[in-house]
């Protein structure tokens, strides 16, 4: 089983786009996306220094564009991707890359949205002298307690041995002077305390933009940073991306869902290395591939062929399916036979896991064509539960 992941801010390095721009097709696509987001991506991906591309308004469009264009090089025909990718996820701004990759929004919509996201987050972060710092190693409970004691926030939980503390620069300096035992601290190349209340001012603005964007439901299972759940409603995907701006990234829960699904291979889009590095420590037995340069494309395609199976949503418009958000046991809400009409928002059942008891609703309504599970069945994340005809009850 294959998961394709997209990294977040801090993964960018000076010149990382240079080898890709040697390909005229890739260069043309980057130039087009540069025009869409009104940012000279080719310049920032080749000639700009580390301090320049640390700017949030530059880094975020650069990251999303590089992932999307590399995906186009890897899968020249998008339908091929849906036949081989089982799962997709993005870390922080990488969620926009992943959402576009599975068809929730177009590449052009993604670039306009990420441009505004980067500008809004940069403006919000500029109101405070804040930053982020990776805390590597140590006892997890001691690390979290020390972060809270210094008035910081655990803005990213990236799994065992890696938590990201965020807050004011003064608080981070005090934290650095008294680090938790057996830890190593690494300042991150970001311009503010993202995924905390320090950038909450950006959320209402981005919410307005998101409401104006037409969405489609994912054609492949997509994980959310909020809780590691599989999200199958396109509108919910975008709403979650907006709220995630000021909420902690739970990449640890995303990886837990990957384990639940039995992922065997992880391919990271450029600028690759961060998420595959985390996976090598946290997902034992999962083979990783960090796609960094175009001369790796043939090997990357072989990796996809080796691990990709094609998710259960392949070939189906997923708004006609309701899927399980997590691993657990499905309980039917009420007896609803084939032919029953569901109003928009109708609850069909729930999935109970060790952590959650989550309702499953039909956001668009519809008529039940067939049940794909029965009451009391164990289900996996993203498993289709019921097939609907898109004619809802009036």
UniProtKB/TrEMBL annotation:
It comes from Actinopolymorpha cephalotaxi. The keyword Oxidoreductase does not apply. This is [acyl-carrier-protein] S-malonyltransferase. InterPro entries: Ac_transferase_dom_sf, Acyl_transferase_dom, Acyl_Trfase/lysoPLipase, Mal-CoA-ACP_Trans/PKS_FabD, Malonyl_transacylase_ACP-bd, Single_hybrid_motif. It is an enzyme of class 2 (transferase). It comes from the Bacteria. One of its GO terms (cellular component) is cytosol. Residues 5-329 form the Malonyl-CoA:ACP transacylase (MAT) domain. GO terms for molecular function: [acyl-carrier-protein] S-malonyltransferase activity. Keywords: Acyltransferase, Transferase. It catalyses: holo-[ACP] + malonyl-CoA = malonyl-[ACP] + CoA. Its EC number is 2.3.1.39. GO terms for biological process: fatty acid biosynthetic process.
